[in-house]
Design a protein that fits this description.
The complex is a heterodimer of chains A (132) and B (503). In chain A, helix 1 crosses helix 6. With 132 residues, chain A is mainly alpha-helical. Chain A is globular. The relative contact order of chain A is 0.15. Chain A is 64% helix and 0% strand. Chain A has one domain. Chain B contains 14 helices and 20 strands. Chain B folds into two domains: 290 residues, 3-Layer(bba) Sandwich (FAD/NAD(P)-binding domain); 156 residues, Cholesterol Oxidase, domain 2, CATH 3.30.410. With 503 residues, chain B is of the alpha+beta class. In chain B, the strands form four sheets. In chain B, strands 1, 2, 6, 7, 8, 9, 19 and 20 form an eight-stranded mixed β-sheet that branches. In chain B, helix 1 crosses helix 14 and helix 6 packs across helix 12. Classes of the chains: A mainly alpha (132), B alpha+beta (503). Chains A and B meet through helix 2, helix 5, helix 6 and helix 7 of A and helix 3, helix 10 and helix 11 of B.
Chain lengths: 132, 503
């Protein structure tokens, strides 16, 4: 069962703030990113999955208090500011929560072979033989 | 409902890594004497062609929680493997013997450094440990040597246990060329040839006071990697003469804690792990980094400044996770991947009362870890030293998680002491991981220990421990050779005690 389905637009907005290049992904690219994240979440406890969805919802709605708009309606600079507040929060719980969410976004983006290739990562099981 | 299958073995070894694999080989002579020796491994046995080198594919197959096993505080991930060969599948094969000052400081009665060194030497030879020739050293390692020398550090080369290394750089994802001489390549096959039985996908749920083990053998998941178990899936009840716990720090300690045994109160205590930071630096031009053995050199400042630096090379997601922050600055570093040099900073942490292993309601291991001021100081000093080496090697900028902002330009290289400071250490913001898990069933004498210096659990002579959980404190170096040396001692004591315990 999908964990992200209920919060997909918010998750995509967060992921594209963590990794700006994610904003340029086509539908297939997003599907692959989300499949990787869903696979990572699937074996985790339901409680943790629910906490993640709650955090994403909170990130979506909390900017209303400061900016009068939801996260998905903010410009990239303000989105980054919202996430920075979480990352630097005095509350360990919030820092941990954001760290987990950031990790998932990075995993979804950089674990894709296309992303690894795009940054020039070339490790090959054949080792030196593949370079010479 | 399927009935529980009952079986008897003289010796049951739980775990097949550096400890369990060593004990299995060392106890093989008991088989020739007519005894039955069994190894139970929670993970699967992989075929050679299953090591693809793909990051998530292999991390998910090999590591507990895909390598993302979190401490109870949620501020550090712990990396340990479940597989035939245990964590020896995923180390880089760096082979160091225990420092004399560390063994002396442990103060374990009957355990002396010379004995460990003698035993270690046997395994260094057995595992083909040697120094890689200069032509196999990549730029990532060469720059560490050059920068280290210019910055005034004593750089040493790691002896490594490889045979036919092709330089894939993928050691931590399981060698795709079977070059690393872990227990999966050396000790376990020999033990099997000598009649030791090995059963994979077999989780030990409990050890009972009557020397029985409740074991659950899992089916191979659809589409999963690894061979099916040697036994049919289901529940087993094994009677044993001697039980050797070698499932690693998390496995052994949690097994004992969920077993209903009259154990010493110190089980779970004295957990240490060498918390580590991955540091990266950007050079102006491409370097060879994701080809060649990744970890060939180190700087050991453990005794003086509580840190060790090691060369390293990680994969895209792992690298991305290790970098602080997010957004365009983060992306800029990632896009410089072919120009990145990497250093791993390990803190030599000390056993403290709050850092321990417990179990949750389901009996799963929970690692409690708080960073002491001394540990943070080790990470800070190590980060400063790594930054000096990076810049001395010609890096144009360094990414230091203990700096704010984390990117330090070469023109600011004189300000490292001020820029990199403990005040920037913010738990839950900096990515810290550990792969050298130690303690939980400490050797020694008295109330703070669980076993004697030969791995005998106090009060239960038939129960032994033979892995890194024996360490009463941090080893300050890569631990696998010392685990093998200690396991060799444990096996020797078992051979001595076997006539009494097995009849």
């Amino acid at each position: 069962m999908s964990v992200l389905a209920a919060v997909q637009p918010s998750f995509r907005a967060i992921a594209a703030t963590v990794v700006p290049e994610a904003g340029t992904l086509d539908a297939g690219g997003w599907m692959e990113l989300e499949r990787i994240v869903e696979q990572a979440l699937a074996p985790r406890p339901r409680r943790l999955q629910r906490q993640l969805v709650t955090l994403i919802r909170a990130i979506e709605w909390l900017p209303l208090l400061r900016y009068g708009r939801r996260f998905t309606r903010l410009d990239p600079r303000r989105r980054a500011r919202v996430l920075e507040v979480l990352q630097n929060s005095p509350l360990l719980l919030l820092r941990r929560g954001f760290w987990g969410l950031r990790t998932l976004a990075l995993m979804g983006y950089y674990a894709r072979p296309a992303a690894a290739a795009s940054i020039g990562y070339r490790a090959d099981p054949r080792g030196w033989a593949a370079r010479r | 409902m399927t009935a529980v299958v009952e079986r008897f073995y003289d010796v049951v070894i739980v775990g097949s890594g550096a400890g369990g694999g060593t004990v299995a080989q060392a106890l093989a002579p008991l088989v020739r004497d007519g005894h039955r020796v069994l190894v139970l491994e929670q993970g699967p046995r992989f075929d050679d062609d299953e090591f693809t080198g793909r990051e998530l594919d292999m991390a998910g197959a090999l590591y507990a929680d895909g390598g993302g096993f979190l401490t109870a505080q949620g501020t550090m991930t712990l990396a340990f493997a479940h597989a035939y060969g245990g964590s020896t599948l995923v180390y880089t094969g760096t082979s160091l013997t225990a420092p004399e000052h560390v063994i002396r400081s442990w103060g374990v009665p009957g355990l002396d450094h010379a004995d460990l060194l003698r035993r270690s030497q046997r395994y260094l030879t057995e595992n083909n440990v040697h120094l890689l020739p200069a032509e196999e050293i990549n730029d990532n390692n060469r720059l560490f040597v050059e920068g280290g020398a210019r910055a005034g550090y004593r750089v040493e080369q790691f002896p490594v246990n490889v045979k036919g290394c092709r330089g894939s750089s993928l050691c931590n994802l399981g060698c795709p060329n079977q070059a690393k001489q872990g227990t999966n390549r050396v000790q376990l096959p020999r033990a099997e040839r000598d009649g030791v039985e090995i059963v994979t996908r077999a989780e030990v749920l409990r050890v009972e006071a009557d020397r029985t083990l409740a074991v659950r053998v899992a089916a191979k998941p659809d589409g999963g990697k690894g061979r099916p178990s040697e036994w049919a899936p289901g529940d087993y009840r094994l009677r044993a003469g001697i039980v050797v716990c070698a499932g690693g720090v998390m496995g052994t300690t949690s097994l004992l804690l969920r077993s209903r045994l009259p154990l010493p109160r110190a089980v779970g205590a004295r957990f240490t792990c060498h918390p580590a930071l991955i540091l990266v630096a950007e050079h102006s031009g491409p370097i060879t980094n994701d080809v060649g053995h990744p970890k060939s050199y180190f700087v050991d400042r453990g005794a003086e400044q509580r840190f060790v630096l090691e060369t390293c090379m990680y994969f895209p997601f792992t690298t991305a996770k290790a970098l602080s922050g997010f957004g365009p600055d983060h992306t800029r570093v990632m896009r410089a991947f072919p120009r990145l040099q990497m250093i791993l900073v390990l803190a030599c942490d000390a056993a403290t009362p709050g850092n321990r292993i417990t179990v949750d309601g389901a009996g799963r291991p929970v690692a409690h870890y708080h960073f002491t001021e001394e540990t943070v100081a080790g990470l800070v000093e190590g980060t400063r030293a790594a930054a000096r080496i990076f810049f001395a090697a010609g890096a144009v900028r360094v990414h230091a998680p203990f700096a704010d902002p984390p990117l330090i330009e070469a023109r600011d290289a004189e300000q490292l002491t001020d820029r990199i400071a403990a005040r920037h250490f913010n738990e839950g913001k900096v990515a810290i991981s550990a792969a050298h898990l130690m303690g939980g069933c400490a050797m020694g004498a008295g109330a703070e220990s669980v076993t004697d210096g030969w791995g005998r659990v106090h009060g239960l002579p038939w129960l032994r421990v033979a892995d890194a959980s024996l360490f009463p404190d941090s080893l300050e170096i890569n631990p696998y050779v010392t685990i093998m040396a200690l396991a060799d001692r444990v096996a020797e004591a078992i051979r001595v005690d076997a006539p009494t315990l097995l009849g």
